[in-house]
Amino acid sequence: MLKRAVIFANGELADQEAARTVIQADDLLIAVDGGVKHCRALGLRPHALIGDLDSVSPDDVAALEATGTRLLRYPARKNETDLELALDYAIAQNATDILILGGLGGHWDQTLANLLLPFRAPSGGSGDPPRAWPGIRLRDGNQEIIALRGPAAIHIGGGPGDIVSLIPIGGDAHGVRTAGLEYPLYDETLTFGATRGISNVLAESQATVSFVGGFLICVIIRQNTTANLGM
User: Fold this and answer.
1) pLDDT at 158
2) What would the 3-class secondary structure string for the chain be?
3) Which of 90, 146, 163, 183 could link 218 by a cystine bridge, Cβ 3.0 to 4.6 Å?
4) What is the pLDDT of residues 25-46, one digit of tens each?
5) Could you list the mean pLDDT of each consecutive 10-residue stretch along the chain, which spans 231 residues?
6) Contacts of 98 (CB under 8 A, 6+ apart)
7) pLDDT of residue 154
8) So what's the pLDDT on residue 120?
9) Which residues contact 133 (CB under 8 A, 6 or more apart)?
């Protein structure tokens, strides 16, 4: 069965009400260290709490464990960030879609690392077969980021006037096609470091984006914060 994981990172979550609307009853909820504060603000109990737990009080840790939250505690000195460990855990739980809330913030180093995490190769234990890399999104309020690994195709729902930006990363993105956007692309290349794909606009209630190779960050800025974005 397809499973979505929602990861609450320890960054900023500017629009809690918008976050509340996207939570579904069968989501796997994962708190990343101090990101548990977002769960608390939304009245949610995470299924798992991951990290070195230096941003969570011992009383809060004990209370979560007593109510059934799984604790995955790691040392402070490690090679991965807590969010990277949370992504690995979500994938190990067979999540095929991952939504990150609170993944952006004032620390630019953490923000850049979080944006790039979805593009790394999936990890696995020794002898384990390679895992499929799930769809990964970051969201806060009216803005959403989707990490795309080609070949890929997505449907974007929203309203006319919503902004859609396509940003190649790690190299050029090839064979890019779009429909339903004000400035269409027809089997074209978006060059890494150039800004051609910035600030396109939805011309209809739905658009499609596809490409055959490379990596894209798709950023959507919606006028309606309750709009759903298809993948």
Assistant:
1) 93
2) CCCEEEEECCCECCCHHHHHHHCCCCCEEEEEHHHHHHHHHCCCCCCEEEECCCCCCHHHHHHHHHCCCEEEECCCCCCCCHHHHHHHHHHHCCCCEEEEECCECCCHHHHHHHHHHHHCCCCCCCCCCCCCCCEEEEEECCEEEEEEECCEEEEEECCCCCEEEEEECCCCEEEEEEECECCCCCCEEECCCCCCCCCEEECCCEEEEEECECEEEEEEECCCCCCCCCC
3) 146
4) 999 999 999 999 999 999 999 9
5) 86 88 94 94 95 90 93 91 93 92 86 87 50 78 91 93 96 97 96 96 95 95 66 46
6) 4, 5, 6, 7, 87, 90, 91, 134, 135, 136, 137
7) 94
8) 79
9) 91, 118, 121, 122, 149
Structure token digits, residue 116: 């790039």
> In whole angstroms, what is the distance from residue 32 CA to residue 109 CA?
17
CA–chain centroid gap for 54, Å, is 23
Q: Beta strand 28-32 with 4-8: parallel, antiparallel or unpaired? A: parallel
Q: Which domains, ranges and CATH numbers included, belong to the chain?
A: 4-140 (3.40.50.10240), 143-221 (3.40.50.10240)
> Which residues are within 8 A (CB) of 22 and not within 5 positions of it... i.e. 6 or more apart?
6, 99, 139
Residue 225 tokens read as 């914060």
Question: Distance (Å, rounded) from C-alpha 154 to C-alpha 47?
Answer: 29
- Give me the amino acid identity at 192: F
Q: Output the six-digit token pair for 53.
A: 């737990």
* pLDDT, the chain, mean: 89
Residue listed under structure tokens 């190299």: 171
Model pLDDT, residue 123: 57
Give the amino acid at 77. R
